[in-house]
Amino acid sequence: MEPRRHAKLILEDGSVFSGYCFGSHRKANGEVVFNTGMVGYTETLTDPSYKGQILTLTYPLIGNYGVPGYEKEDDLFCYFESEKIQVEGLIISDCSQQYSHWNAKKSLSNWLQENDVPGIFGVDTRALTKKLRTKGTLLGKIVHRHEKKSFYNPNKTNLAAEVSIKKPITYKNGDLTILLVDCGTKNSLIRAFLKRGFTIKRVPWDFDFTMEKVEGIVLSNGPGDPKKCKKTITHVTTLLSRDIPILGICLGSQILALAAGADTYKLKYGHRSQNQPCIEVGTNRCYITSQNHGYVVDADTLPQDWREWFYNDNDQTNEGIKHISKPFFGAQFHPEASPGPDDTEFLFDMFVRAMK
Q1: Exposed / middle / buried, residue 158 (Cβ in 10 Å: 0-12, 13-18, 19+)
Q2: Could you tell me if 351 and 247 are in contact, meaning their C-beta atoms sit under 8 angstroms apart?
Q3: Alpha carbon distance 266, 15 (integer Å)
Q4: b/e for 44-72, b at 16 or more Cβ within 10 A?
Q5: Can you tell me the distance from the alpha carbon of 169 to that of 187, in angstroms, rounded to the nearest whole number?
Q6: Residue 71 bears catalytic tag
Q7: Looking at the DSSP assignment, which residues form a beta bridge with residue 18?
Q8: Mind listing the pLDDT tens digit for each residue in 34-58?
Q9: Which residues of 121-141 are buried (b: 16+ CB within 10 A; e: fewer)?
Q10: Are 74 and 110 a contacting pair, CB within 8 Å?
């Protein structure tokens, strides 16, 4: 058995959390965040919204069901949210060395190693999470000895541009076409519309889609500060003068709000879990949602013809917006789930009805 190799997570406030290496043994820099989900680490780690982030999983036992294998591209598309692991690093309490699942082909450690992503296990993730909840999201780095190098802030760059596709891709599956603006889209979002019988034209984040002949436009999820997606915001602003249905998901909802003239801001430590309670405004209905974001729309800055649609029952921050007369909708949570509950999948059906 290979001897354990020590590693450290160093935070910008000087805190040090020690543990042992698994996966890749390289260094990593990023924004340290936490996710409270109990399952779904394969979907979570491949979510492009985690680009630039070192992810802490609060559930203590990780890796026990391994990682699915795939032999063809369709399997990759079904089992993962993108073609590779997107996080900069992974911090966990206990890494299961033995895995058991009918579809598992490799261990979590081997998968991280293949993707050159470093991990640390044996960390007091409870103490780390309490610190992040108290102080807010912190910059950090994974190292193998104590260093005094500067910290890298991923939010100063356009992370959406880094994870977006470079050329348009079309998924043919019906007579009606949806244009998907890829700011870091999850595969589950594509699958949600394919199973509803739509052809999807997936385009890069900065693609000029203002003259495209499609039935509807979806602004995808993605990482980082929405204000960095200036070209996307400009193109959406142009389309708001028309009546073509627009649906924004997560980062896409923030982009939609910015295009409408509202503002966004950074949350203290973000919402990253599979059980965020969201209230639909004007009702007593609470939906349990899957979320992954660090920025949010400031509902108080919405223009007169826009309304807050949902809000978070934990901290009352915005979780959705809609126009009072035009088919423009935005949801801060993930209706496509993966991982998480599918309570809000009806949003896709509502959007479909707006296109027909």
Answers
A1: buried
A2: yes
A3: 23
A4: bbbbbbbbbbbbbbbbeebbbbbbbeeee
A5: 13
A6: no
A7: 8
A8: 999 999 999 999 999 999 999 999 9
A9: bbbebeebbebbeeeebbbbb
A10: no
Torsion sign over Cα 204, 41, 153, 234: positive
Measure Cα distances from 352 to 182, 309, 355 in Å: 19, 18, 5
If one looks up domain 159-355 in CATH, what number appears? 3.40.50.880
- 293 CB-near residues (< 8 Å, 6+ apart): 49, 221, 250, 251, 254, 267, 270, 271, 272, 332
Q: What is the CA angle 158-160-163, rounded to 5?
A: 120
Active site includes 250? yes
From the candidates 250, 278, 293, 319, give the one annotated as an active-site residue.
250
Question: Is residue 12 flagged as an active site residue?
Answer: no
Structure tokens at 105: 């082909």
- Do 240 and 330 form a contact (C-beta atoms < 8 A)? no
Task: Give domain limits for the chain.
Answer: 6-153, 159-355
Average pLDDT of the chain, as a whole number: 94
> What is the rounded average pLDDT of the residues 327-349?
95
Whether the Cβ atoms of residue 55 and residue 87 lie closer than 8 Å to each other = yes
Token code pair at residue 121: 């296990």
Residues in contact with 131: Cβ distance below 8 Å, sequence separation at least 6, in sequence order: 11, 15, 138
Q: Is the pLDDT of residue 2 over 60?
A: no
Class assignment of domain 6-153? alpha beta
pLDDT tens-place string over residues 106-133: 999 999 999 999 999 999 999 999 999 9
| Active-site residue (options: 235, 271, 323, 334) | 334
**β-bridge partners, 170:** 201
Per-residue confidence (pLDDT) for residue 72, from 0 to 100: 66
* Domains 6-153 and 159-355 in one fold: no
Q: How confident is the model at residue 1 (pLDDT cuts 50, 70, 90)?
A: very low
